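Practice problem 4.
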């Protein structure tokens, strides 16, 4: 178990800008190397999302992810499974519209674990903002293979959410990469979730640094030390 509590997790979430979702990548060794590189490059949160592994395997991968998150003073998240989040001492459990509702998720994980929510419309984002969530995501901004058959909500939805948002953190998600990131930030998002932009990168740490630099309004890459400092601005 870690000594992290809700207050620490909320503070770290408030400083978070770059959130990664990844599958298990086929082996513990590959997964360990990948999440280490991603955190080193400045990723704030990593969520393990893999529908093709059983619960016992997921716990093994989450143990690796937790250790990396602790080393990098970062957050890690469980997808969907409130029970697994509770037993793995996760910082976050992220639930979708068709998963266990937020109120019931809170009953399972308690107050210490943060809850995130996926939303796919401005109305759903408003509901998530007012619910007992700690953050929410709007998307997919663009259609993506990660969510087969789900159309993109477009940058107009991001803009609408930005206009209704308060202090609760929210993220733009879905097809976001270094090439189109400016469209998302111009619409008002200051936080993003990525998948293929890092999982498909030859150098995940460098790709993360490029995304961070663009998130903070520049076009240059930043060093590992600079990426770490950006987490605390």
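Answer key:
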């Amino acid at each position: 178990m870690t000594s992290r509590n809700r207050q620490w997790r909320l503070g770290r979430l408030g400083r978070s800008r770059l959130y990664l979702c990844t599958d298990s990548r086929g082996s513990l060794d590959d997964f360990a190397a990948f999440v280490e590189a991603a955190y080193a490059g400045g990723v704030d949160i990593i969520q393990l999302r893999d529908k093709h592994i059983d619960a016992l395997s997921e716990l093994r991968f989450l143990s690796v992810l937790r250790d990396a998150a602790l080393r990098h003073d970062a957050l890690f998240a469980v997808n969907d499974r409130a029970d697994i989040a509770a037993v793995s001492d996760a910082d976050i459990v992220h639930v979708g519209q068709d998963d266990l509702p937020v109120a019931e998720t809170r009953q399972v994980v308690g107050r210490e674990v943060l809850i995130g929510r996926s939303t796919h419309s401005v109305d759903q984002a408003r509901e998530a903002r007012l619910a007992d969530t700690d953050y929410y995501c709007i998307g997919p901004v663009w259609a993506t293979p990660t969510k087969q058959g789900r159309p993109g909500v477009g940058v107009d939805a991001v803009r609408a959410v930005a206009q209704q948002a308060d202090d609760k953190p929210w993220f733009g998600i879905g097809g976001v990469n270094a090439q189109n990131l400016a469209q998302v930030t111009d619409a008002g998002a200051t936080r993003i979730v990525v998948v293929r932009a890092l999982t498909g990168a030859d150098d995940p740490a460098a790709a993360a640094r490029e995304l961070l630099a663009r998130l903070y309004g520049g076009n240059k890459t930043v060093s590992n030390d600079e990426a770490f400092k950006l987490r605390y601005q």
